[in-house]
Design a protein that fits this description.
Elements (H helix, E strand, L loop, with lengths): L9 E3 L2 E3 L6 E6 L2 E10 L3 H20 L2 H30 L3 H21 L7 E2 L6 E9 L3 E4 L7 H13 L3 E4 L6 H12 L7 E3 L4 H9 L6 E5 L2 H14 L2 E5 L4 E5 L5 H13 L9 E6 L1 H17 L18 H16 L3 E4 L18 E4 L6 H4 L6 E6 L3 H9 L3 E2 L1 E5 L3 H10 L4 E4 L14 E2 L2 E2 L9 H4 E9 L3
Parallel strand pairs: 7-8, 7-10, 8-9, 10-11, 12-13, 12-18, 13-16, 15-16, 18-19
Antiparallel strand pairs: 1-2, 3-4, 5-6, 6-22, 11-21, 14-15, 17-20
Helix pairs in contact: 1-6, 2-3, 2-4, 2-5, 3-4, 8-9
Bound molecules: nicotinamide-adenine-dinucleotide.
């Protein structure tokens, strides 16, 4: 395999690269902080400028490649990926802590999404229209927008980068990827595979560097025609301000504060199982994690009891331990932030039913292990009720009825996803229609599928939905073509 020697570095204009003054950077295992997992040489803003310029130079030729060639490239990537996914899954678990089973499932999901895009490459056409004039044909055709910057978070280090890079290449856009510094290892593998598959210099670039310096230099570069960002709302909105001034195409996939409403629901056990899985997967560090349960009095007592049983039974441990169900938190900063939210919640009047603090003793003292936590009587409008915690903390907000439940579910700046668990089809229908979210689930946890558009409303998203075929609306522009022909 064409993987560079450590320390790993950026990939610019078809070469692994680091300047003479590049700073060294090490990632420690969040589950065993005395272990160094990987070593990197950091990119600089000058590297970002070179990568953007290389993408600009590569654009005309890549835009002319055939759909067949782009499709073959993605099928080639599927084949290579399948030989390496186990290695990559292990790096992901070591760098950001999620259990190996979750990293493997992310790697397998990548196979499905890559296959989808290999097919989509051959379906990128658009529409024809009847004309009001004789002997006239009208069509809209799709053209690549140009070089694209892909900025990604650390919680899905495989899928987030691939969801930027692959639709870009399929659409004819060169792409420069800047993954989060907490877990860039999977992106190095993606770069190595694209290099091995012969992607021309400049068509793909990788920058391993910080957000406020390298990321900002990349998204602000005049050669960049589109920015596809996945990450926190605060950073996304900052990027949006700068992009608006340049009228650059923008796709933002940002934070969430996802509610599950439970009302008139006979099968509380099943509802609790779906909620618990969606709340504690990746230790709650998913944009689509269920973070709040909004419950009516008829089901409150049994639901709280089963949610507590399920949270308390989760086996928390190191990502590579075979019996681990929930891993450590990604970093000390994130760990401290999560605990701060729980302490604030208690000061605001919430009651901890289980968990509520760091796990201690044994191996727990060596990493950032937080107890799966369920908190109830969370007051409406308090921080725990409306802000994204991004950790294994499930807040229960008791309400009187469905009307109040819908109000509470919508009472946040976020609008990513939501769920309702109920046997009452009228209640389900009302919730689907009135939920201010880009995605909504009925008797179903907040998980998504790779062929379906994915995105958020309000301050959770902007621009074309990523995942599924809607992503092409970001990477391509429509051109309307009017042709008159002789009889
Ligand atoms: P983050 O916003 O801190 O960082 C995301 C990326 O932006 C990183 O690569 C970072 O280096 C970069 N960045 C930071 N400042 C920048 C700047 N000024 N210019 C350019 N790039 C910059 O987010 P995170 O902590 O990595 O990820 C967690 C967040 O991501 C959560 O809020 C979560 O909800 C969100 N997320 C959303 C989705 C979605 O699809 N909606 C998916 C996964 C994660």
């Amino acid at each position: 395999m064409d993987l560079p020697d450590a320390p790993w570095r950026s990939y610019v204009a078809g070469q692994w690269t680091a300047g003479p003054d590049a700073r060294h950077y090490e990632i420690v295992d969040p589950g065993r902080t005395r272990d160094t997992v990987s070593r990197y040489l950091l990119a600089t803003p000058e590297d970002a400028e070179r990568a953007a310029a290389a993408a600009r130079d590569a654009f005309p030729a890549w835009a002319e490649t055939t759909a067949g060639r782009r499709s073959d490239l993605v099928y080639g990537l599927v084949d290579l990926w399948q030989t390496r996914m186990e290695t990559v899954a292990e790096i992901v678990s070591l760098e950001m802590g999620k259990p190996l089973a979750e990293s493997r499932s992310e790697a397998s999901r990548a196979v499905a999404e890559l296959r989808f895009w290999a097919g989509e490459a051959l379906r990128l056409g658009d529409r024809t229209f009847p004309s009001a004039r004789p002997h006239t044909e009208i069509a809209t055709i799709r053209e690549p927008i140009g070089p694209v910057a892909g900025i990604t978070p650390w919680n899905f280090p495989i899928l987030s980068p691939l969801r930027k890079v692959v639709p870009a290449l399929v659409s004819g856009c060169p792409v420069v990827l800047k993954p989060a510094l907490q877990a860039p290892g999977a992106s190095v593998h993606i770069a190595a595979m694209l290099h091995e598959l012969g992607v021309p210099a400049g068509v793909f670039g990788l920058l391993i560097g910080g957000g406020s310096d390298v990321g900002a230099a990349l998204v602000g570069h005049p050669a960049i025609a589109g920015i596809t960002f996945t990450g926190s709302t605060d950073v996304g909105l900052r990027i949006a301000g700068d992009a608006a001034a340049r009228n650059v195409r923008l796709q933002l996939e940002m934070g969430g504060k996802n509610a599950a409403v439970v009302t008139r629901c006979a099968d509380v056990d099943r509802a609790a199982a779906e909620i618990s899985a969606a709340a504690f997967a990746v230790a709650g560090q998913r944009c689509t994690a269920i973070s709040r349960v909004v419950v009516t009095p008829d089901v409150r007592e049994p639901l709280e009891r089963v949610l507590v049983e399920k949270a308390a039974a989760l086996r928390v441990g190191h990502g590579l331990a075979t019996d681990t169900v929930m891993g450590p938190i990604v970093s000390k900063d994130q760990f401290t932030k999560i605990h701060g939210y729980v302490e604030q919640g208690v000061r605001d009047g919430a009651r901890v039913l289980t968990g509520g603090g760091p796990l201690t003793g044994g191996g727990y003292d060596d990493g950032y292990y937080y107890a799966p936590t369920v908190v109830t009587d969370v007051p409406r409008g308090s921080a725990l009720a409306v802000e994204e915690v991004f950790g294994p903390v499930l807040s229960i907000v008791p309400v009187d009825d469905l009307e109040e439940a819908i109000d509470v579910a919508n009472e946040t700046r976020y609008g990513l996803t939501a769920a309702i668990f109920t046997d009452d089809m009228d209640a389900a229908h009302a919730f689907v229609r009135r939920s201010q979210t880009g995605m909504v689930h009925v008797n179903h946890g907040t998980n998504s599928e790779g062929q379906v558009p994915f995105g958020g409303m309000k301050q959770s998203g902007q621009g074309a939905y990523g995942i599924g075929d809607s992503a092409k609306d970001f990477f391509t522009s429509l051109k309307a073509v009017y042709s008159m022909y002789r009889r």
